[in-house]
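Fold this complex.
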Amino acid sequence: MAEGGPGAPGPSADAGRGSRALGNRGVLVSSASTVLFFAVIALIVALSPGSEVVAERFFNPKNLWQSLVGSTGNPSVLGAFLLNVKIFLVAEVLILVLALVIAVVRGIPGPVFFPFRLLAIVYTDLFRGVPLILVLYMIGFGVPGLGLPVVSYLPDVIYGVISLVLVYSAYVAEVYRAGIESVHESQNAAARSLGLTRWQSLRFVVLPQAIRRVIPPLLNDFIGLQKDTALVSVLGSVEAARAAQIYSASEFNYASYVVAALLFVLITIPLARFTDRLIARDKRRREAGALA
Amino acid sequence: MSEGPALLLEDVRKSFGENEVLKGIDLTVEPHEVVCLIGASGSGKSTLLRCVNLVEPIDAGRVVVEGEEITAAGVDANRIRRRIGIVYQAYNLFPHMTVLRNITLAPREALRQDRAQAEENARRLLDRFGLLDRENEYPDRLSGGQQQRVAIVRALAMRPHLMLLDEVTSALDPELVAEVLSVIKELAREGMTMLIATHEMGFARDLADRVCFLEAGRILEQGPPNKIFTSPENPRTRQFLGRIIEAGRL
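Structure:
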C-alpha cells in the first residue's frame, strides 16, 4: 500500500481476475457434484423394489396438500405447526432469562452464596443429563398427579413448555457461562477500579461482551429447540408431528410426515443461515481487530 | 490537609499461592506529591498499585486513604475506590462502548451524575487532551496512545484525589510514549497526587518528588530523584541503575 507506484494496480487486478475465474470454475464444479449427488440418491430410490409404494405413501401430491391444509376429521399440519412456533417463541424467551440467572448465580463469589452456586451446579448437571422425553413425562404426568390447586390443572402444552425451558436452560446457562468466562478479568478489574459495584460491572461491562460472543452458539441451541417442540406431542398436544400422525393413521398415508418435516426445515434454514452470517461477521471483526 | 497523607500503606503483604509478591510494604504519599516506583519486572510494582484500591485483596497490612482505612471491616471499599483513579498498562478500555460511554459510565452509575452533566464533563476533558473528535469512536479504532489517553480521561472523570499509573507507556510504540507522558506531566503540574510505576527513568527523574526502588517485594531505598539516580546508597539500587544505564535507558 505504502509504495503505490505504477506497478501496484497491475498485480492486484490480475489477482482479481484470477480469483473470479477460479470462482466460476468452483461454482461449476459444485453444481455438477450437487446434481450428481442427488441424481444418485434419486436413482437408488427409483430403482428400489418398493419405490412405487414409497412414492404413493410419502409423496403423493394429493395427500401432501390434504395433510398440509387439513381434511374432515384430520387437523391441518400447517395449523398445528403454528403451535410449535408458539411453543418455541415462548420457551425461547423464558430460557434466555432463566439461563442467564443460573449462569450469573453460578459466578457469584463468596462463601455466603455457596448454597446458591451449588443449586445452580446441581440444576445444570441434572437437566443436561436427563433426556428431554423423560422430563416431559415426569412434568406432564407428575405435576398433574400431585393434585395441587392451579399448577396441577394447567393445559398439557404448558407442561411441555415448562419441560423444554427446564432442559434447555441448563444448556444455555453453560453457553452463557462460557461467554462470561471468556471476558478477560482485567475488564472487571477496570470497572471495579472506577468504583462500580460487582453487579454494575457485570451488567454494563462483562455481560454485554459475553452475550455478544455467545450469540452464534445460542442460536445453534435454538435450532435444536425448534425441532424438540415436536416432543411436546407425547403429552397430547396436537402440534405438527402429532397432527401428521393423526393424518397418517386415518388415511394410511405418510405424506403428512413429509409435510411436517418440510415445515420444520423451512423455519430452521433461515435461522441456520442467520447464525452462519453472525459467525462470519464475528470472524471478520476479530481479524480486523487483530490488524488494528 | 487535616486528613493527613493522601495514602498510607502499613506492612502490606500479598501472596499468589506460594509466591510472596509483597513482603511488607510501608509507604506514605502526601497530598500533591508524585511518587515513582522503579524496579525490575516482577519486583512487585504493579501488584502494589493493584493492592492500593483493593481490587486485588491483600493478605495483611493496612491501607489508609485520606485518613480512612479502606482495609477496615465494614468499610464500603467502592466508595473509597471512587477517589482513586487507576490506569493500566493495557488500557483496559471497554471495547463494546464508544469513547464517550467509556468515560461517562462510572460517573453516571457510581456517582449518579445525570447524562448531560457526565457528558459535558467528559467532553471538557477530551477537549483538553485533544481527543474531542474521537468521542464516538470505539476503542479499537484508536491508536495505542489515544487509547491510553482515553483511559486517563476515564479515570479523571471520577475526579479522583489520587491517581495510580501502572506502567502506562510500556505497551506503546516509542513514538506514542511522548503524548501520554505529556498528559501525566500536565497532571503533575496541576498538583494531582500520583503514585506511578514506571520503566521510564528519565521521566521519573524529571517528574517525581520521590523515587522508591522496589526489589523482590520490598522497598529497598527511597528518596528524591537526584539522590536516587546519582548517589544511591543501597548496592542493589546501584546495580539496577547500572544495568539501566548500560541499556541506554537513562
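The CA atoms of residues 216 and 275 of chain A lie 5 Å apart.
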